[in-house]
Amino acid sequence: PPNAPAWFTDAHASMTHIDLGCHYRPIVAAWTRMEAASRFEHSESNLSAKSRPKSIGVWIRSKRTAAASINDPVQYAEEWRAWWDLLQPSWRTKDKDGQWAITATYGGAGREWGPLYRWGINGILTVVASLYFWGCVVQGKPEFLGSWERAVQDV
């Protein structure tokens, strides 16, 4: 968007440098709409860091200047899932396979997104970035791609 501040345009350029495909693009589009709707301001509170993947914490502490380093995609997937689970609003439920259910009311049906609804540099950008860095590592590696694709589908 033409009125976007540097923090957003820089992050957007970084999170789209490599095209991760048709399932990732809508996440970037939704993030862009969310930030534009908030006039690119910052939330009063940040997205929770509890159980967040360690490499994402390192990326944040580095002032988001370099890509997060993911050495073990399996461990990262486990860390990411634990963090994502903690970010979910209370009304979301899991299916019989332990995955977050995507039903006809997915999207909240007007309900609050709670701790997940955070915008600005310390908000949902962190989720987008966590998926982007993970996706860059697992592209072309079918043995690791499935867990990333499930995460992208849920976000």
Automatic annotation (TrEMBL):
Organism of origin = Favolaschia claudopus
Q: Which domain of life is it from?
A: Eukaryota
- The protein's name in its UniProt record: Uncharacterized protein
